[in-house]
Structures are given as structure tokens and as C-alpha cells.
Recover the amino acids of this structure.
């Protein structure tokens, strides 16, 4: 029997980068405020009930709001997400208005950003340690479809960083 060679970190990173993902804006609100963040790891994970997973880097301001409210909204981006990338790419502290100059509306679970292709309101069912991220498992409790435009699909050059 031959020996099994192990892939280099660069090879592993390149392979992980081939996993397609969309990009979304996750929003949350609680008594502490409301905010949003750019998220590239959102995926459906169940049918009965309808469930999704998402990953949030530990200690991001939105984590506090999700923990307090037990809910969030996933705003799905269309084929040209550049305006949302520019707006949310820098990140926001809880004392900044993450929704300045955007058309939004509050729902029980978070904030819906108008003119996106769809949104999902979810209730957290579990939070799991994913190393440098928290992995949230959440049940879809409401949704809206605002456009038939295709979603933005993203491939990273490497799975070792954003």
C-alpha cells in the first residue's frame, strides 16, 4: 500500500473556494438596537420544518442582537450586489445606523431591505461553535419574494479567508 499524501493548505483553500455561495445581508434587532452585516454563508438545511444555517464571525455586533432576540432576517441579493457590498462591507457598530439612506421596514425578526430579490425571517433553533464563527440553525417563519431576478452567486479564490 502506498502512502496517502496530504494536501497543502493552499490546495485545501482553493478547493474550499470552489464551494458556491450567495451573499446576503443579515439583519437583526433587539432592545439594544438594530444592525446588518454582509454574509456569504447562508444555506438551506432542512425541509420539515424549513430551516437554514448561517455563520457569523464571533464578536460581531450583530451576534449580540441575535442572541437577545433569537431571530434575524436574511435579505437575499440579486446579480448585481455592488451597492449592498459598498454599504455593508465596512461593517457597523451598534451605535451606527446601518440602514442610513436605505429603504427598509421592520418585521418581528429583523429588518427587511427593500428592492432585494427575497427575504427570509427566521427564529434561531440552535447556535454551534464553528471555530472563529458561530453557526446558527434557524427556522424560516416568514418570507417575501420581491423579484424574479437570479441570485448573486459567489466563488472565492480561496476558502482560507473572505
Amino acid at each position: 500500500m502506498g502512502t496517502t499524501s496530504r494536501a497543502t493548505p493552499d490546495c485545501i483553500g482553493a478547493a474550499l473556494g470552489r464551494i458556491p455561495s450567495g451573499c446576503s445581508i443579515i439583519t437583526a434587532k433587539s432592545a439594544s438596537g438594530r444592525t446588518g452585516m454582509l454574509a456569504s454563508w447562508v444555506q438551506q438545511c432542512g425541509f420539515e420544518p424549513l430551516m437554514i444555517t448561517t455563520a457569523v464571525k464571533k464578536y460581531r455586533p450583530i451576534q449580540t442582537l441575535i442572541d437577545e432576540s433569537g431571530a434575524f432576517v436574511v435579505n437575499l441579493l440579486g446579480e448585481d450586489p455592488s451597492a449592498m457590498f459598498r454599504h455593508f462591507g465596512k461593517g457597523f457598530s451598534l451605535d451606527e445606523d446601518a440602514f442610513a439612506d436605505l429603504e427598509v421596514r421592520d418585521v418581528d425578526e429583523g429588518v427587511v431591505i427593500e428592492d432585494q430579490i427575497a427575504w427570509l425571517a427566521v427564529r434561531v433553533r440552535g447556535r454551534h461553535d464553528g471555530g472563529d464563527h458561530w453557526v446558527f440553525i434557524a427556522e424560516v417563519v416568514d418570507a417575501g419574494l420581491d423579484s424574479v431576478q437570479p441570485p448573486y452567486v459567489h466563488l472565492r479564490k480561496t476558502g482560507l479567508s473572505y
Observations:
- The mean pLDDT is 94.
- The domain at 21-145 is CATH 2.30.110.10 (Pnp Oxidase; Chain A).
- The chain has one domain: 21-145.
